[in-house]
Structure formats: C-alpha cells, structure tokens
Write a structure and sequence with these properties.
Blueprint lengths: L2 E7 L7 H8 L4 E5 L6 E5 L13 E10 L9 E7 L6 H16 L5 E13 L6 E7 L8 H6 L3 H7 L2 H4 L2 E7 L2
C-alpha cells in the first residue's frame, strides 16, 4: 500500500505566500491555488509519504491506485480532480481513467504525470472517494487540443450524466514560492 496525503487550508487564502509557506511547512509540496479563493494546500505524494492532519484544514489520506510514472524536469502546475463516486459506479470510473482518459491526456505536450488515488480517510472538507493529481509543465497545457478531446468522448459524456460527476471537486495549483 503506497500512501500519500493532501491537506487544504481555505483560510490561508488571506495569507501572503510567506505566511502560507510557514503554515504548510517543508515536509511536502506547498501549493497555492491559481483560481479564487487562492487557498493553500500541501500535497505529499508517495515519495514523501503521508503527512499528519493539521488544525483547521481539510485532510485526506490517500492510497495510490495508478501512476503514469516519473519524468525529467519540473512541474509548473498541479491540477486536482476529486470525485465522490457511488460504489456501483466506481469500477466504471476506474476503467474510464485506465482505458481512455489518462492515455488521452498524456498525449499532450507538457502533461507530465497523472497519479490517481483512493481516499482512505478524511477529516474536514468535502467527502471524496477518489482524487487525481496531474502534474503539468505550465497552465497552458490545460488549453491543449488533447485535453479538449479527452473531455469530449462518448464514454466521458455518459459518466458526466451522474450528479456525482457534476459535483466533482477541482483545483489548479502552482508551487508556493
């Protein structure tokens, strides 16, 4: 079992980068949202290992489900997609990710890595059953034709009909300087 964690501090939106960085600590990837409300987060992938929960934050303990593998270079953006998928839909969601969606996204130049996790436990924040973290070279990759195609397939359209899909959580983060 490969463990990771994700912690998000909505209240940190009012802090400057230095103060948010002090709050997050050095033990994981400190992140700042690039879209409102500009909150701060801490992502601890498996190579770092799960970090403890923190007061006043939403915290998720994660088990690695899939990983496209390491790459050369550095990411500029981390994109998060989180679902609270019903048990009866989870196998289909996993098949879609593994057999179609991730492969299509990885065709985009600058889409560096995708890691999917099962949420093992959480405290605070919304309930999610799965989280996917996408490491991108920069934010322009989100406008790539490959991503647009990956988001327009019939399989995705079928999944998108579910309220659980429409209520997905999303985040786009940069490294906290």
């Amino acid at each position: 079992m490969t463990l990771a964690s994700f912690t998000r501090w909505p209240a940190a939106a009012t802090l400057d980068d230095d103060a948010a960085g002090a709050l997050l600590g050095p033990a994981a990837w400190p992140l700042r949202s690039v879209i409102a409300p500009f909150d701060a987060a801490r992502y601890a992938p498996p190579e770092i290992g799960a970090q403890p929960a923190a007061l006043g934050a939403a915290h998720y303990e994660l088990e690695l489900a899939s990983d496209t593998g390491a790459y050369q270079g550095a990411w500029g953006i981390v994109m998060l997609v989180a679902f609270d998928a019903p048990d009866d839909v989870t196998p289909e969601l996993e098949r879609w990710y593994e057999q179609e969606h991730i492969d299509l996204l990885m065709r985009a130049s600058g889409w560096l890595r995708a890691r999917r996790y099962r949420v093992k436990s959480h405290s605070g924040g919304p309930r999610w059953t799965s989280m996917a973290f996408h490491e991108l070279a920069d934010i322009s990759v989100m406008d790539s034709p490959e991503r647009a195609f990956a988001r327009s397939t019939p399989w995705r359209a079928e999944l998108e009909k579910g309220a659980w899909f429409q209520n997905a959580g999303r985040g786009v983060f940069r490294a906290l300087a």
